[in-house]
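Fig. S4 source data, part A: sequence.
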Amino acid sequence: MSARLSAFAFSARLRAMVRSSELSIVVVAVVVGVLAGLGVAAMTELVDVAHVVIYGIPFDVRLSAAARVLPVAAFTALPLGGLAVGLIDHWRRVRKLPRAVDPIEANALRGGRMAIGESLIVCAQTVISNGAGASVGLESGYAQIGGAIASRLGLALRLRRQDLRLLVGCGAGGAIAAAFGAPLTGAFYASELIIGAYSLANAGPIFAAALAATLTTKGLLGAPYVIVAPPVAPLALGHHFLLVALGLISAALGVGAMRAAALLERGFAATRAPRWARPALGGLVLAAMALYTPQVLGAGHGAIGLDFSAQLSAATLATLLALKLSASLISLASGFRGGLFFASLFAGALLGKLYALGVAAALPTLALDPTACIMAGMGTLSVAVVGGPLTMTFLVLESTGDLSVAGGVLAASIATSLAVRATFGYSFTTWRLHLRGESIRGAQDVGWLRDLTVARLMVSAPPTIPGETSLRAFRAAYPLGSAHVVVAVDEAGRYRGLVLVPEAHAAPLEENEDGGPISAVARLPETSLHPDVDVRSALAIFDAAQTDTLAVTERETGVVVGLLGEAFAARRYAQETDQAAKGVLGGG
């Protein structure tokens, strides 16, 4: 018993220290980074072994860089891998297990809460998908396991909401840093895509986690997705305008690809095949495509290295670009698990190389370096699909070590981001959440807003009176000063309107009359709030009704359950907004 009490006391002291000390958060972030790096190394090793065993390729050759794959391997591994992924999803639905939450959704809606069990299932499905050869990357699995580990550790330490969101960003960003051997990329991935804000207060833990994860994975097996680019010729002013034009082309292609994903999902649903069998159907399509070129398989890391310096015609580049995008979208639409981060980098490299050929033919005197176009294509198409212009710019910087080309890519990436926001408004992750009915457009914390509902703000059991009660009887029941508002209800307790006590007493009433039913002077009989409405929507209803008090009724029955004042709702909304802003800026 004494040992248990001592352990409890130590745990309490540890939690108190972490919650009160910024240095302690950095130490926890380093631990998270190391664990995320271990997760990246383990997933990578499993997939590499699977590719060697299934496709018979040498261990030092990437699947997408293979000269050819055996048809029997492709037509066996891809459908069976898809079937395994589909059956796991079917098992989860039968068992009614909760849906896995990715780091963006967790930070936007759940205050950083992720379940480790569901995340491990997602990671297993991602490994199966990529290991079988599906045209998806492991980076979503990397971020999932990094974020889940961080969330679990933060919950064990009982961290505050903003600290937990920060730690999830450290885990996911650390995993991406480890995958690319690029700590700056991982750090900005955490800030832009997982936390949704930049803050000096968050910089220490984020960079510590990214560096720890990078060193851990490099020490074990090297960065799985490291990109090495040749030197780039200096960029002139005209070159920047050409790269911005490439960014706009990437924006159009990225938006088209995201919309196509929804169409493909509906296409697979239209086959009437059971949901668990759809990944197997997708696997058959991918196997047929792989017979034309293995570059459609996996994330494309081997293929991007193969194509970087190869002399390819415009027709070949256009064909490979169409095939890779189609293969990736078919993989995800049919039900395979994985990400589009590296797939969009590979497709962007093909687009950049194709664009360089076009510029060289149309404007030969400008002498735009093809490598600059390739790097800009990688960055901009990834910005269009994944988001994060600074993330992609730092990936280019860490790959080339060239500030000049990074500046050009930054200009192009910003143009891409602005174009996508203006015409579409979503990244691939948030678009898929939108298709499920969510409205978030990033990882900014809006979960507190959804939690702050009318049910939490209302006054329960408000004063009520039957609507048939006479005006004289109402005055007797509620003299001046006894209440400000009384809710009129019918015999079943359903809402009939609001009666302002001062107005009821000011109404003319002859000595020998009862004044008629009180419902005749009740206001807003058709307007009320519901308990599940969030405070911002409630304030909009107050504004439209031009009133300072509204009744709260059950959505299905119309029975009155409470009363809410506009002033109180506005004050609580302002308090929570201020608290959320402090969290984003690293205060409070």
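Fig. S4 source data, part B ends here. Residues 267 and 282 are 11 Å apart (CA to CA).
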